[in-house]
Specification:
With 452 residues, the chain is α/β, with parallel strands linked by helices. Helices cover 47% and strands 12% of the residues. A five-stranded mixed β-sheet has the order 2-1-3-10-4.
Length: 452
């Protein structure tokens, strides 16, 4: 195994795990990983059991590090086992490494030691940072040689994989924010269960009708930077300005969402979930399932969980718009680590299989993530899935509104998870802290970071 230079190792070790790698975990993984981590031992045991089949001693060994366990980890194991059984020249082994924060830390350690995996499941916001440090393999030529047509992937997913400097990732478990509502509760208060709110004004109107003082709230969502991004995009805003020296929402685009949330909470029609990060997502899901709230925004990857936990009919819709519909994407890509060029052809063969339309479609039907390409969405298995699960169409149809990309900047994970998250949560939690103060603070801290 080849090792990277000492300069790269030093640069990686100097990167703060909690800041440089802390942002962007914004979808189903964030809500599920705390519970999934305890399943690590179970998944590893299943992996060992799956290794009882004879392996060609001449096969190229490929190590795949993942950040999903539980049922999702089992599905990855199943896909890998199917790949291994389909040929005998490459043998892939899966190892669970914990959540995205854990993965970033372990990859940094692995790079310094030289004991790297061939493939890793890397949160999308971290891709450029790792690529800039030179530890990710540019897969452009390998993809061409293998016949992998990257133009098939949705453009909204590829912005974090290929930003004009090379192909450093391929879409894997990707999602968008999604709007869920209680159809039974809509009927109860005289709202059309087939007509969810389409605008921010309608969201406030519906939330007021669904609310019962101190008993039930019409709306809830985690106060998370991922959703804040969505509301900025719904006013046709940009997260960073054009030359990436400051935020692009230091105006009403940034203050209006915070002002709306604060006013809805003060009016008793929006419930601010307790806790942060993992806890806030779990609280939103639990409150919705219990009938404490009538509408929520969370990840499209939560569809399966909500369908199974709710004893009422769940509806899904696009996030309500301001001047336009808009959502960011989230989740993780798969990346090939540099320094293992002797195994790169075998690794690319596996990645071509993993991201193929048929496998991507199967993955989407088993997990709730969006299919990574239109070709995957057009497969029989996915079409049958959405025919039987109408709510699953929403995430796919919403992909047309992912045209405003999240920033591809190595400092953006810190801006997202530390600066934006801290300020918007403070704004919601402290009555005297205004949206204008929050956005100004985000701007000042972002400018200082980007100027370094």
């Amino acid at each position: 195994m080849k090792r990277r230079g000492a300069l790269v190792m030093s640069a990686l070790l100097m990167t703060s795990l909690l800041s440089g790698c802390g942002g962007g975990q914004s979808d189903a993984e964030k809500t599920q990983e705390a519970a999934q981590t305890q399943a690590q031992g179970e998944n590893q045991s299943q992996a060992e059991a799956g290794e009882t089949a004879a392996v060609n001693p001449d096969a190229t060994e490929v190590l795949f590090w993942i950040s999903l366990s539980g049922g999702m980890g089992e599905t990855i194991e199943e896909i890998v086992n199917n790949y291994n059984a389909s040929q005998d020249k490459v043998h892939v082994t899966v190892e669970f490494q914990g959540n995205y924060y854990d993965m970033a830390a372990k990859l940094q350690t692995a790079v310094t030691s030289g004991e790297m995996p061939h493939v890793a499941q890397l949160e999308m916001g971290r891709t450029k940072m790792f690529a800039d440090y030179g530890v990710l393999q540019d897969m452009t030529e390998l993809a061409q040689e293998t016949g992998l047509d990257t133009s098939m992937f949705f453009e909204g997913l590829m912005s974090s994989c290929d930003w004009g400097e090379g192909l450093y990732a391929l879409p894997f478990n990707r999602s968008t924010p999604m709007f869920y509502y209680n159809k039974d509760m809509f009927e109860e208060v005289g709202l059309d269960p087939e007509a969810p709110p389409q605008t921010w004004d309608e969201l406030k109107e519906y939330a007021a009708k669904l609310s019962i003082p101190d008993e039930r709230w019409g709306f809830e969502m985690p106060i998370d930077a991922w959703f804040y991004e969505a509301f900025i995009m719904q006013s046709d805003g940009r997260i960073l300005n054009e030359d990436e020296t400051d935020i692009g929402f230091n105006n009403e685009t940034g203050t209006e969402p915070l002002a709306m949330w604060k006013s809805m909470i003060s009016e008793g029609i929006m419930k601010a979930p307790p806790g942060k990060e993992y806890n806030s997502y779990e609280a939103a899901r639990s409150d919705f399932s219990a009938g404490i709230t009538g509408m929520i925004v969370t990840s499209s990857g939560d569809l399966g969980t909500l369908n199974s936990s709710c004893d009422f009919e769940v509806g899904t819709a696009f996030l309500p718009k301001n001047t336009r519909f808009g959502v960011p994407t989230g989740g993780a890509n798969v990346v090939m680590m540099a320094g293992l060029e002797e195994d790169s052809a075998a690794t690319m063969d596996f990645l071509k299989y993993l991201t193929s339309p048929e496998v991507a479609a199967y993955w989407a039907t088993k997990t709730g993530y969006v299919p990574s390409s239109q070709a995957a969405a057009d497969t029989d298995v996915y079409q049958e899935y959405i025919s039987a699960n109408g709510n699953a169409k929403t995430a796919l149809e919403q992909m047309q509104y992912t045209d405003i990309p999240r920033p591809i900047n190595e400092d953006y994970p810190q801006i997202h998870s530390e600066i934006m998250m801290t300020e918007i949560q403070r704004c919601i939690e402290e009555p005297s802290y205004t949206p204008e103060q929050a956005v100004t603070a985000i701007s000042e801290q972002t400018k200082a970071l980007l100027a370094k």
